[in-house]
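Q: Given only this backbone (143 positions), what sequence would you predict?
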């Protein structure tokens, strides 16, 4: 099982969208070897952002409520994917990459912004997730 945990600040927008987009992609690809989760560096049990739910529903991904989850400690068997390099720099001692290594740019925080900003953020996340899944699948197939 390949465990991937997406990390952002509050786990109400970017990381939860990444988790749910990744789950949808893996299901469409019939990839059963992936396990996706998400957490926040400063999560405090808030609900997923309403605009994130709307965008996830538009994309055909799970759009139900969920409380944000704080990252307490790193699991050495999990690959952590952060939205920014600054978040990556805060995670020491584990397998950590950022969307910068996948897309060449960070995923900006849409929190408090309008629906179009959330849609753009979700599209960027989707591109990064596609690259991530393809890279891991290709690497696994080369073994």
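A: Predicted residues:
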């Amino acid at each position: 099982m390949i465990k991937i945990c997406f990390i952002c600040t509050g786990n109400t927008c970017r990381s939860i969208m990444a988790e749910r987009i990744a789950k949808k992609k893996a299901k469409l690809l019939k990839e059963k070897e992936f396990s996706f989760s998400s957490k926040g560096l400063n999560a405090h049990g808030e609900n997923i952002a309403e605009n994130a739910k709307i965008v996830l529903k538009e994309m055909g991904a799970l759009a139900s409520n969920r409380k944000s989850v704080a990252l307490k400690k790193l699991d050495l068997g999990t690959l952590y994917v952060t939205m920014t390099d600054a978040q990556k720099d805060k995670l020491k001692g584990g397998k950590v990459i950022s969307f910068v290594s996948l897309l060449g740019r960070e995923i900006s925080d849409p929190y408090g912004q309008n629906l179009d900003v959330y849609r753009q953020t979700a599209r960027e996340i989707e591109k990064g997730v596609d690259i991530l899944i393809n890279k891991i699948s290709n690497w696994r197939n080369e073994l």
